[in-house]
């Protein structure tokens, strides 16, 4: 599946920092991880750290799927607002999902320190009303988050203008969030536990269940025998799951030339209530990233043909908020992402595929979902009971 196009900032800036071999032999392992993006890297790290032998394979060069196109805003918010998620699955479950994502950000920060990765920065987040009609629901969201125990503040339009230099009818300021570089973070993780082998350009074509595990056959005819398989393949899972679990969409982003001074204070994360929502962040090398303008289709040719137009629109979106600020796009790209009915990921076992497990962090905060998945999979493989798996199961209503 063609997951992205254009010139993602991270890939252009950071290139290919490490190389990995192509599988050219038959091998065995405890756990085979299919997928070599940020999700696969996190799963590998946590399983290896827990004592499981792993092998990772990816059909592409490592990191050249969705990961290099990620804008890496790390947020506790699920794409479904908390007040609405409470109505869908109940208050206790909804609040728990949000708190798991918040804890995931803290865990990712600890992990970044542990592997000596320095492109990880905590940021406040401002979720602002795109239109006056959105204020009522945004205030409901503020109340729900306060009730759930999150450190949030309500800001009226004069406060937003004074603090952040643009106008919006209202906003929630959250003191939870972070930004990173998912592409380099992934590579930093893959440099840990070097005895756990990684192979790229190694496509798994067939998986056969046997009594004590699975046997996977690659496109070159080699086999990988494993007791368990973890699919960290993201949106490509639609090719193997025989039920509709995710709706594929196209999304767009740009990164500016170097900016002398940022137009808003404290480099906070900005995103709004529009559908699709607009979001912005800064980078460590003095750029602004603007993303959004999603389209409800997955068609690579159509998606890619819109990159220039979408870049112009995102630039105009930025200037509507900051008319006096300078923003010149230098890199523009498109990617595929997916949304689920409740905004939550799918994690754990799928009953139609024995010995197979999934870490599918769909939605706008896929990296935090991936971290949540890692902790749940470690417990599952250790035989520990973790009730949080029910939140993300394939059988949930």
Polypeptide structure, described:
With 397 residues, the protein is of the alpha+beta class. The chain folds into 3 domains: 4-70 and 183-244 and 343-392, FAD/NAD(P)-binding domain, CATH 3.50.50.60; 125-175, no CATH class; 247-339, Alpha-Beta Plaits. The chain has 10 helices and 20 strands. The radius of gyration is 21 Å and the shape is globular. The relative contact order is 0.20. The model has no long low-confidence stretch (mean pLDDT 94).
Characterize this entry briefly.
The chain is an alpha+beta fold and 397 residues long.
Count of individual helical segments: 10
Number of domains: 3
CATH class of the largest domain, please? Alpha Beta
CATH superfamily of the largest domain: FAD/NAD(P)-binding domain
DSSP summary, beta strand count: 20
Distance between the termini: 28 Å
Strand-pairing-aware structural class: alpha+beta
Helix/strand order, N-terminal first: EHEHEEHHEEHEHEEHEEEEEEEEHHEEEH
Oligomer: single chain
- Computed over alpha carbons, the radius of gyration is 21 Å
- In CATH terms, what is the fold-level topology of the largest domain? FAD/NAD(P)-binding domain
Core attributes:
397 residues, alpha+beta, FAD/NAD(P)-binding domain, Alpha-Beta Plaits, 3 domains, nine-stranded mixed sheet, eight-stranded mixed sheet, 10 helices, 30% helix, 27% strand
């Amino acid at each position: 599946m063609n997951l992205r196009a254009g010139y993602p900032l991270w890939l252009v800036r950071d290139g290919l920092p490490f190389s990995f071999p192509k599988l050219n032999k038959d091998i065995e392992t405890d756990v085979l991880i299919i997928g070599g993006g940020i999700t696969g890297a996190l799963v590998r790290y946590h399983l290896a750290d827990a004592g499981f032998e792993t092998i990772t394979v990816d059909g592409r060069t490592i990191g050249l799927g969705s990961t290099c196109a990620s804008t890496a805003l790390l947020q506790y918010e699920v794409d479904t607002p908390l007040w609405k998620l409470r109505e869908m699955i109940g208050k206790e479950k909804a609040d728990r999902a949000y708190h798991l994502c918040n804890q995931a950000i803290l865990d990712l920060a600890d992990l970044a320190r542990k592997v000596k990765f320095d492109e990880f920065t905590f940021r406040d987040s401002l979720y602002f009303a795109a239109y006056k009609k959105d204020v009522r629901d945004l205030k409901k969201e503020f109340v729900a988050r306060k009730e759930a125990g999150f450190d949030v503040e309500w800001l009226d339009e004069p406060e937003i203008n004074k603090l952040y230099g643009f106008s919006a009818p209202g906003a929630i300021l959250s003191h939870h969030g972070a930004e990173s570089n998912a592409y380099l973070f992934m590579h930093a993780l893959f440099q840990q536990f070097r005895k756990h082998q990684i192979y790229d350009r190694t496509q798994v074509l067939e998986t056969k269940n046997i009594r004590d595990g699975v046997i996977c056959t690659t496109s070159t005819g080699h086999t990988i025998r494993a007791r368990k398989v973890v699919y960290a393949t993201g949106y490509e899972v639609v090719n193997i799951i025989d039920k509709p679990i995710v709706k594929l969409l196209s999304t767009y982003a740009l990164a500016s030339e170097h900016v002398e001074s940022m137009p808003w204070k404290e480099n906070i994360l900005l995103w709004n209530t529009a559908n699709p929502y607009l979001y912005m962040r800064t980078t460590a090398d003095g750029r602004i990233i603007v993303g959004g303008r999603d389209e409800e289709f997955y068609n690579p040719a159509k998606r890619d043909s819109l990159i220039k137009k979408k870049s112009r629109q995102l630039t105009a979106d930025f200037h509507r908020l900051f008319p006096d600020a300078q923003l010149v796009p230098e890199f523009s790209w498109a990617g595929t992402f997916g949304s689920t009915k409740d905004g939550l990921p799918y994690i754990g076992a799928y009953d139609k595929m024995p010995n197979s497990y999934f870490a599918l962090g769909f939605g706008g905060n896929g990296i935090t979902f991936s971290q949540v998945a890692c902790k749940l999979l470690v417990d599952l493989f250790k035989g520990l009971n973790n009730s949080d798996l029910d939140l993300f199961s394939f059988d949930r209503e």
